[in-house]
Specification:
With 225 residues, the chain is mainly α. It has 8 helices and no strands. The chain is elongated. The protein starts with a helix and ends with a helix.
Length: 225
């Protein structure tokens, strides 16, 4: 029979998994709305999901505080609890950014032409992929998945930088593209930030498993382990 402490740890893990799944769904909905014409029903769904994520984030804080107050976790459990608190914050930010993408997408005129011209579909799909891999990373805690997330993040950043550069050049020669171009640049920055939050989660998972901080390590060093 599991102890109360083990039950609380399992509950904590389950809540983070649920938060990650909700955030993954939000990113997918935000990408769908970005790439297509937004529908009111979809916007309501994504906002409702954000409320669920916020409530789960509060629940995680409550559980962690209770464990710290009443238990004496050993090193590995302590790393998990510390990482859980940080991961929940990262997931919450992913949800916030998804909402912001939906709001900005509504202000992009002639959206389809801009999306095709500046390779937004490819970038968006990569962000969906890294979000899914990040959730899997927390569940499986496999080092190979963590390495894949680092590589994906680098690719997303490079593609976002290139697209933003091209959009700015477009706005310089076409004044009609300024409003839509500005909103699209902000959307790209949000997508890039989602990718970075995913990478942060992967770093916390690595710390949880290996008791080693990799924030300033090179990607090649991680992949060679």
């Amino acid at each position: 029979m599991k102890t109360h402490f083990e039950i609380e740890l399992d509950k904590l893990k389950g809540i983070i998994e649920k938060m990650g799944q909700l955030a993954e769904g939000q990113v997918s909905e935000a990408v769908k709305i970005l790439l297509q014409e937004p529908e009111v029903a979809e916007q309501k769904i994504i906002k409702k999901t954000e409320s669920k994520i916020d409530k789960l984030d509060v629940k995680i804080d409550e559980i962690c505080q209770s464990i710290f107050a009443l238990q004496q976790p050993v090193a590995s459990d302590l790393r998990f609890i510390m990482s859980a608190m940080q991961i929940s914050n990262e997931i919450e930010r992913i949800g916030d950014l998804s909402i912001s993408i939906v709001k900005r997408a509504k202000n992009i005129k002639e959206k389809h032409d801009l999306i095709v011209k500046f390779n937004i579909v490819d970038i968006s799909k990569l962000v969906e992929l890294i979000t899914a891999k990040t959730n899997n990373c927390f569940i499986t805690r496999e080092g190979s998945t963590i390495g894949e997330i680092f590589v994906l993040n680098k690719d997303i950043k490079n593609k976002c930088d290139e697209a933003i550069h091209d959009i700015i050049n477009e706005m310089k020669v076409n004044s009609k593209a300024v409003v839509s171009g500005t909103n699209l640049v902000i959307v790209l920055k949000h997508l890039e930030r989602i990718s970075e939050h995913c990478t942060n989660i992967a770093e916390y998972v690595y710390f949880m498993v290996n008791a080693k901080i990799i924030k300033h390590d090179k990607i090649d060093d991680l992949l060679s382990e």
